[in-house]
Amino acid sequence: MPGTEDSRSRLVQPLSPYRWRGSRILDAVCQINEHLVNALSELAHHESASVGLVRQNADLLRCFDAAACRRAASIPVLLVDLHFHDDDWWRHSVRANSSYQFGARRSFSFPAGHAEELTRESLIVAWLSVQHARECAGLLFGMSSQVADLLAELSPRQLSRVAESSSHELRIRWQSTPTFWRKLLIAGQGGSATELSEVRLLGLQLLGGELLASRCASTWRE
């Protein structure tokens, strides 16, 4: 019966592949990570490099090529941070004439030129995330829901102003956790699937711990 055959063929047609809504944001995060790792590799060739993790891992970073940078950058967490868990900082940083004092000005953790580029790239992708794939903000940026709300309200001009005025606040994520960075760079250089999976899981665990601590602190303040 032709009709029956046609109905059966329609039933067995393959489903369209599912594409996660945040996949483009993840791709952009990995590109920023690659920019960071490339910059760290470049700095490792200068004996005067002031970034602690560069000095600690210069032996690995000096051997990095483009493929190693891409592998290390593939971790699904943004490897830089701009107070994405601190709603007080964001609330006052978006005010054009804010008199809020953030305390002692911290020294740069990254050369100014690199910091400016990475800050601008990170903020653009973070803003796109809260606009179009909100669930990515916490998973990829370690962003609290309060900061996501504040960031989502910014106009492009405000976003640009925050990027211009705040690059000195950009920090390499987990710079004070040398074990993470050593494992990440070893996995990136060696290309072991097992080592890459383990360090990605470690990154997600570290990020989850920070988010949980931030939520507990927020609840306590309330």
Describe the secondary structure blueprint for this structure.
Blueprint: H1 2-11, H2 23-43, H3 52-56, H4 58-61, H5 66-73, E1 80-81, H6 87-93, H7 112-132, H8 135-141, H9 145-152, H10 156-166, E2 171-172, H11 178-190, H12 193-221
Antiparallel strand pairs: 1-2
Helix pairs in contact: 2-5, 2-7, 5-11, 7-9, 7-10, 11-12
Characterise the protein shown here.
It contains twelve helices and two strands; from the N terminus they run αααααβαααααβαα. By secondary structure, the chain is an all-alpha fold. A two-stranded antiparallel sheet has the order 1-2. The protein is globular. It starts with a helix and ends with a helix.
Provide a count of the helices. 12
Average pLDDT, rounded to a whole number, is: 84
Give the strand order of the largest sheet, numbering strands 1, 2, ... along the chain: 1-2
Q: Briefly note the structural class of the backbone.
A: mainly alpha
Task: Give start-end ranges of low-pLDDT stretches.
Answer: 98-108
How many strands?
Answer: 2
Shape verdict: globular
Encode the helix/strand succession as letters: HHHHHEHHHHHEHH
